[in-house]
């Protein structure tokens, strides 16, 4: 498939802002999906919720949402989860890619939150963990096409590298839209590395690429003598880390 055919895809950008980086114990504070299609203005749906716990200052410093604001302005997490999972499942069921940055984190945390609130997550809605897709993760793609590039790989840095406009960093809607803009730019710049890919084969390839990236990172930490319990190669869901939550083997 030529790189030009990746332009103008009907896609759904997705991002979460949370209370921290622990997939299984932290909570959603803000969520957004952005529908992007050729010839149409992006359509955004956002949620601000009360996570039910204190938002640490370190997290508030990143996304700007304090505990007081979440309690005053935030809605019910259960309602947000029901609506959000419904939109993601509908897109995936129709073969529309869900696009984002480091999505194994967002999707796994989303699944854990659904389990916590007694709501069907994506695995339950779609019927099996293998049906959670197609997913496009711009971090996985960038590491695959340019593994040895120096410098950071935060979303803002990827946008700068690929010349993508990014407004609203660490705002869920801004980050989701930036990821949607990044995807075709990465595919166009490195077209030779994606010969013959369809959206579904691209999803499957990312499973292997993410595992290889995690294996390489673990080897690096081993050489440095550094602990690496948090390096998980499962994608797009951390099935092995908490199988009861996402339908993996027990």
Q: Indicate the CATH class.
A: Alpha Beta
Mean pLDDT: 92
Please tell me the CATH architecture by its name.
Answer: 2-Layer Sandwich
Structural class: alpha/beta
Q: Helical residue percent?
A: 40-55%
Distance between the termini: 39 Å
Over the alpha carbons, how many angstroms does the gyration radius reach?
17 Å
Number of domains: 1
Q: What is the global morphology?
A: globular
**Could you tell me the number of beta strands?**
5
Number of helices: 10
- Work out the strand percent: 5-15%
Low-confidence stretches: none
Strand line-up in the sheet with most strands: 3-2-1-4-5
Give the name of the CATH superfamily: Ribonuclease H-like superfamily/Ribonuclease H
Strand and helix order: EEEHHHEHHEHHHHH
Largest sheet geometry: 5 strands, mixed
Q: According to CATH, what is the topology?
A: Nucleotidyltransferase, domain 5
Give a written overview of the molecule.
The chain has 250 residues and is an alpha/beta fold. It is 46% helix and 12% strand. The chain is built from ten helices and five strands. The relative contact order is 0.16. The mean pLDDT is 92.
How do the helices and strands line up, and which of them pair or pack?
Layout: E1 11-18, E2 28-36, E3 43-48, H1 57-63, H2 67-73, H3 77-93, E4 98-100, H4 103-117, H5 122-126, E5 135-137, H6 138-145, H7 155-162, H8 172-189, H9 199-224, H10 243-246
Parallel strand pairs: 1-4, 4-5
Antiparallel strand pairs: 1-2, 2-3
Helix pairs in contact: 3-4, 6-8, 6-9, 7-8
Brief rundown of the structure:
By secondary structure, the protein is an alpha/beta fold. 46% of the residues lie in helices and 12% in strands.
